[in-house]
Design brief:
Blueprint lengths: L5 E4 L9 H14 L6 H7 L4 H8 L6 H12 L10 H10 L4 E4 L4 H10 L8 E3 L12 H10 L6 E5 L2 H10 L2 E4 L7 H6 L4 E2 L3 H7 L4
Parallel strand pairs: 1-2, 1-4, 2-3, 4-5, 5-6
Helix pairs in contact: 1-4
């Protein structure tokens, strides 16, 4: 397997330890609409495209815009930290002089706030967020946009994510798909997505990519 010339990442659950905060924000959000939500519902309905979660929980579409604003307000009250292996992995890639990209389903406002808070705002050559394009994961359009902005052919890049939608997007874009399970309740689905590389943490993923 050739060493990639660029590495792109998912954000939530891959670099950012946001699973617990996401669950608590959903609990409080859906309670405001008198919709029951517990950890079983989280496991059953979680998807990087949160509109699919809204639909699965039964939130009428007329409230989705309002729900987005409420969720961001709730999230701002408990901003997550990076996963323990995230900063060492980014430092390892920077030392290897590899360009980095970020392709996430998260809203741009929230993601940029997180990046600035964590001192990573200049780490990525391209940042493509869920609110930037009409197409969302697993559609390959967001990943292709990032590759275009980086001037990087798909066959020379690897994408690291924690959801089956990440793997599906990478495969559809012709990018090496690397799966690293995070805190979201999707491990079985992630394994079933058949990534090119499955690693238990980011350090192991970079070793598998032959990045020292």
């Amino acid at each position: 397997m050739p060493r990639p010339r660029a590495v792109l990442f998912d954000w939530d659950g891959t670099l950012l330890d946001s699973a617990a905060a996401t669950y608590r924000c959903y609990q409080r959000l859906f309670a405001a609409y008198s919709l029951p939500y517990d950890h079983q519902a989280f496991e059953r309905t979680y998807c990087p495209d949160w509109y699919r979660t809204y639909e699965a929980i039964g939130l009428p579409q007329a409230f989705w815009g309002e729900a987005d604003r409420r969720w961001l307000q709730l999230y701002a009250q408990e901003p997550p930290a990076l996963l323990p292996a995230a900063r060492p992995a980014l430092e390892r890639l920077t030392a290897a002089a590899l360009p980095l990209g970020l392709v996430t389903s998260g809203q741009r406002e929230r993601v940029l706030t997180d990046l600035e808070r964590l001192g990573l705002q200049t780490c990525f050559q391209s940042i493509v967020c869920g609110s930037d394009l009409a197409a969302r994961k697993p559609d390959p359009a967001p990943l292709r946009r990032a590759l275009e902005e980086m001037g990087m052919p798909s066959q020379d890049a690897a994408y690291i994510g924690d959801s089956p939608e990440d793997v599906q997007m990478a495969h559809a874009a012709g990018v090496l798909a690397v799966a690293v399970p995070g805190g979201y309740p999707n491990r079985d689905a992630l394994i079933a997505a058949r990534a090119d590389i499955f690693a238990e943490d980011l350090g192991a993923a970079l070793t598998a990519l032959r990045i020292r």
